[in-house]
Amino acid sequence: MIPGLAEYVAARLVRRYLFSEGFLGRFGQFLPHYRANANQSDPGPVVGVYADALARAGPHHHADRTILEVGSGATNSVGYQLLQRGFAGDTGNILMYEPHAKFDAKLDAQMMHRAGDPSAAIRVQRITTLAGVADASVDLVLSNSVLEHVLDMSGLLTQLRQKMRPGGMMVHAVDYRDHFFKYPYHFLLFGDAEWNRWLNPGNLPRWRLTDHLRFFAECGLEAQVLSSETDPAEYAKVRGHLAARFDRGNPATAVTRALIACKARSTMPNP
Prior knowledge:
Layout: H1 5-18, H2 21-27, H3 44-57, E1 67-70, H4 77-84, E2 94-97, H5 105-115, H6 120-123, E3 124-127, E4 138-144, H7 153-163, E5 164-175, H8 192-199, H9 209-218, E6 221-230, H10 232-238, E7 255-264
Parallel strand pairs: 1-2, 1-4, 2-3, 4-5
Antiparallel strand pairs: 5-7, 6-7
């Protein structure tokens, strides 16, 4: 018997059929084994991840650059702190792309005030579509705990690559764990049919690091894994029972978190 399997399945069924995204956004922090998005109250750790990634990725600086964050959540809090810490230089802009989460205007106003930069109201802009972003206009694309939820990876990456300037960069922090974090790998035990029919909340396609590296390559992006983590003790509990889709012989299957930087291949024509 796989440790914790019954508890895991029960939690997943409850998550799928009883809890909406709005409910989890408000009350997820109180649910056992579930980690809610804390970026809205404290964007510091996310900005720290971005800063670390850029330091690892090497020279890339544009004095006054346009930054696009993908999947910003209910507020623009990360954008305000990016601006405060000088990521966009003196005159650059930060675009906060959020096509799904409902904007919390009251909380956003508090976060803007806390950041203390009077230019934020103009230089940090919230968008719900990429259609209005000019091609070849973005210097830096960022995302945190977003790519693991994207169903159409090729579609998103193609759009993002079109928006990047020549020499631009993407930095993606990806969380490959099941988001009931007590069981980081249990969702790999199920075939696609049973996962999607009964347990998938709708936004967990269960990509692994190898999948994302393949998507990057197919979209003309050269990717570099800046750092990655695994949880050997937890992986050992499930490794022998993984669904056929997941390659237990590939170390990348066990990756729980990864920091990935990528640039467009200079020899690859724009899509």
